[in-house]
Amino acid sequence: LFFLKRCPNNKGPQNITHLSEFHLLGLSEDPQLQPILFGLFLFMYLVTVLGNLLIILAVSSDSHLHTPMYFFLANLSLTDICFISIMVPKMIGNIQTHSRVISYMGCLTQMSLFIIFGCMDDMLLTVMAYDRFVAICHPLHYSVILNPHRCVSLVLMSFLVSLLDSLLHNLIILQLPYFKDMEVANFFCDPSQLLNLSCSDTFISNIVMCFVVTISGFFPISGIFYSYYKIISSIMRIPSSGGKYKAFSTCGSHLSVVCLFYGTGFGVYIGSAVSNSPRKGAVASVMYTVVTPMLNPFIYSLRNRDIRRTLRKLHSSIV
After folding, report:
1. Does residue 318 fall inside a structural domain?
2. b/e sequence 155-165, b meaning 16+ C-beta within 10 Å
3. Between 34-61 and 292-303, two packed helices, what is the crossing angle to 10 degrees?
4. CA-to-CA separations, 199 to 27, 107, 139, 166, in angstroms, rounded
5. What is the DSSP letter of 168?
6. pLDDT band for position 276 (50/70/90)?
7. How many domains does the structure of the chain reveal?
8. How many whole angstroms separate alpha carbon 104 and alpha carbon 115?
């Protein structure tokens, strides 16, 4: 619906040919909170990068972890590092310099990378659900179905779909001739907020966005639901309760990450639709842009015996 909004009569639209920068919304205007925010987000960023690098190091260094599940996990960790690195360093720099200005091209670049790696997270979680489906429902054919060539193909396909999603968003933004404001109601160049600034009647953009949402939202979620429907159906046929627990425990980490990723994402956008406070929406978006990538390594390391064992071996070899 935000595509159909018109510019207010009392504010002239900004022509894109003269627009050189946007202004990002900070999490707080209180000067006393700025050092706290700087330290907090620097700490969260370092923890996220270190935690995900440890997952990648553990998977690459232990031959026992050279399986499709851990291959996808390593790619998810790399994607999370890229995802958080798009926004948090810029925000930390803005806090340090007391400036919230981002150039027009910088904003488009940040938006493009945000979509690519956000959609990659989405697609990889779907691929990992498929991996668990094959492992539980077709265990005898697991190594044949998910051979190395197919695993690489699935990751490459996820990247290409994400790239297509980003290109379509860019196509929509670049065809907008006017913006009704330069204030982006988030601490990064959120695509939905940029589209909300449009003054144009973009009927074709609506159609393209429906297509984009179907590709990057509906299909992955449907794939995850279908995979877990088949997984639960297969587990329920196992006669012993111990066998059921053992089978479902292999999905626990992935299911936790899926719930965290989609739960925080949907919660933020539903809350933004209900609340009239842009700053509350910006604070809430920290949950899926910063907190979720930070918690993913902890979820997989705490719930996964193989990862814990490999990390202990790495620690003992260093010490």
Report:
1. no
2. beebbebbebb
3. 40
4. 26, 18, 54, 21
5. H
6. low
7. 1
8. 17
Assigned domain for 14 exists: no
The answer as to whether 210 is a domain residue is yes
CATH code of 54's domain: 1.20.1070.10
**5 belongs to a structural domain:** no
38-59, pLDDT tens digit by residue? 999 999 999 999 999 999 999 9
* Cβ pair 12, 70 in contact under 8 A: no
Residue 74 has what pLDDT? 94
Which range of residues forms the domain containing residue 160? 27-306
The predicted model scores a pTM of 0.86
- Find tokens 């909170």 and name the residue: 33
CA–CA–CA angle 267, 273, 277 (5° rounding) = 100
What are the structure tokens assigned to 109, written together?
């670049």
- Per DSSP, the three-state class of 228 is helix
Tokens found for residue 294 = 């930070």
For 141, the enclosing helix (H) or strand (E) is none
Task: In whole angstroms, give the CA distance from residue 235 to residue 43.
Answer: 41
Task: Determine the residue type at 151.
Answer: C
pLDDT, tens only, 74-128: 999 999 999 999 999 999 998 888 888 888 888 889 999 999 999 999 999 999 9
Q: Are 77 and 55 contacting, i.e. CB atoms less than 8 angstroms apart?
A: yes
- The number of angstroms, rounded, from the C-alpha of 274 to the middle of its chain's C-alpha atoms is 22
CA distance 116 to 112: 6
